[in-house]
Amino acid sequence: MNVRRRRSRRDKITLIDVARLVGVSSITVSRALRNPDKVSASLREKILKMVEELGYVPDFAARTLASRDSDVIGVVLPTLSNFALMSVMQGIEERIHQTHYRVQYAYTRFLEAAAVSQIRLFLAQNPAGLIVTGLSPSEETGAILRSADCPVLEVLDISEQTSSGLRVGIDTREAARVATRHMLERGYRRFAMVGGPDSRSRLRHAGYHDVMQAAGLYDPALDIVENEATSADLGCRLLRRPLDRVPDIDGAFCHNDDVALGMMFECRRLGLDVPKQFGLCGFNDLDFAAVSAPTLTSVQVPRYDLGVRAADMIIRAIDNPGFEPLSVDIGFTLVERESTQGKSAG
């Protein structure tokens, strides 16, 4: 007989109800839901069947109050629409899916005030751990993260100081240096650096500046920062700016592949040949970089692996209170393709 029936919020099914009808303790039911491998297959099946029939929904708020900590790992992101971050999120999900922990996301729209608010909200819920990505270092966020009662991991440039000691990332400035040197080696001399206002973009600009300054080719008119979310549309619009400032411009190193793709489209509309007249290099090596026409040179970051490593480290820190702080450099690779074959390429 189906025992499920409609109930009011005051008459909510509880863990005790499930336990009573199955004939086991509430601890056994909790264990079957949280750590199913610790309960026999037959008993687990019986409990899960009763949970389904009753329509029982675990009260995570009550569980948190009872145990002080929840099973939630909070993830703070600057945006939920960035393709590069989606791969990071997939990696996080894949690793945490193997455990009893759950993931909750919040995004900041690249705003410091929103970051502070979201981090405070997560910490007020006693999370098991917190993963923070895309934050610009600041005294306020640093102080909040240092005061956290749970392990905190920051996904950021490995050269920057973290608030927790746990971090995963790449050397963004060095990656920009490598990409800039590559464009110089391919014969481009008057190419712009185009990016946004966040900390990762600033490091890419810094790497570009290092190499161009050393080569005696740095021109501030070609160092372009746009306070707007990056996109292909932005890339289309931004190409006009350096063309107006520096008519003999011969390329662009872009903050990410979206901007580079937009510039590629605009070059085609303007009759600029890529790569003979205009070289293009992106960052992140998104899937379309290998199939665009021409194919796009880009700095490849193992984004999925970054998410897996970040989740694995936070889980180990949660499960082992004595876990030593780690700084993991996952590395990068410059993938050379048609868009930077050289001004003389035929």
Could you describe the 3D structure shown?
- This protein has 346 residues and is of the alpha/beta class.
- It has 13 helices and 12 strands.
- Strand 3, helix 7 (139-146) and strand 4 (152-155) form a beta-alpha-beta unit.
- Helix 1 packs across helix 2 (26-34) and helix 10 (232-238) crosses helix 12.
- The N and C termini lie far apart (77 Å).
| String of helices and strands | HHHHEHEHEHEEHEHEHHEHEEHEE
- How is the main sheet built? 6 strands, parallel
Strand order of the largest sheet: 2-1-3-4-5-11
Oligomer: single chain
What is the SS-derived class?
alpha/beta
Rounded to an integer in angstroms, the radius of gyration calculated over CA atoms is 25 Å
Number of helices: 13
Large-scale geometry: elongated
What portion of residues belong to β-strands?
15-25%
The stretches of 5 or more residues where confidence is low (pLDDT under 50) are 4-10
Using DSSP, what is the number of strands? 12
Distance between the termini: 77 Å
Overall residue-averaged pLDDT value: 86
Please estimate the helix content.
40-55%
